[in-house]
């Protein structure tokens, strides 16, 4: 999570995920050095942190900041608690993975209009449960919780495919760094940095060109479900 005032988070550290805690020092240093971090929304601050990290050759922190910024953005859109690990990672993170895996299964041909289809939403969930242990746990744990199931369905029906795909790219880059390159196809440090710049550009382009459409899509879905 990336927020304008870290003092609010300090009130309850028990709600913070292990990924978020290491960012505190980074955020404090960045906020002290740059007035550009005075932004209205949390995810806007996150974007500035990513840029700051790139400028200061802090690639690992940049990947972490971008991944968490995207989750913060989606928490805002879907009215999910961006401090709670259960909601932030369990709901947002799981749904991003579910849509990514399903789209991969179908050859990356899923279109936005199809996501509204309840049968496809169910198919996405079924596939994610079979392919992702974490997703399986989340879905099984949600049985009987109508509110959570409704939120899952809302996200699966409206989450932009390009955001799910981008989120997976960012996660893979972050994992490549965290695993010290011990992967089947490790990426060089220079390429990781270039990829981070590209991922940031893709996210900012989405916000500039598709944000209004995304918000309208979510609102339309909520009206149809009432």
Describe this structure in a few short sentences.
By secondary structure, this protein is mostly helical.
Pick out its properties.
single chain, 226 residues, mainly alpha, 11 helices, 0% strand, globular
The biggest sheet, with number of strands, parallel, antiparallel or mixed sense and barrel status, is: none
The strand count comes to 0
SSE run: HHHHHHHHHHH
Portion of residues within helices: over 70%
Strand content: under 5%
Distance between the termini: 31 Å
Count, helices: 11
How would you portray this structure in words?
The chain has helices spanning 6-10, 23-33, 42-55, 59-78, 85-105, 112-115, 118-131, 133-141, 146-158, 161-178, 189-225. It is mainly α and 226 residues long. Helix 3 (42-55) runs antiparallel to helix 4, helix 7 (118-131) crosses helix 8 and helix 9 crosses helix 11 (189-225). The radius of gyration is 17 Å and the shape is globular. The mean pLDDT is 80.
Give a topology summary.
Elements: H1 6-10, H2 23-33, H3 42-55, H4 59-78, H5 85-105, H6 112-115, H7 118-131, H8 133-141, H9 146-158, H10 161-178, H11 189-225
Helix pairs in contact: 3-4, 3-11, 4-5, 4-10, 4-11, 5-7, 5-9, 5-10, 7-8, 9-11, 10-11
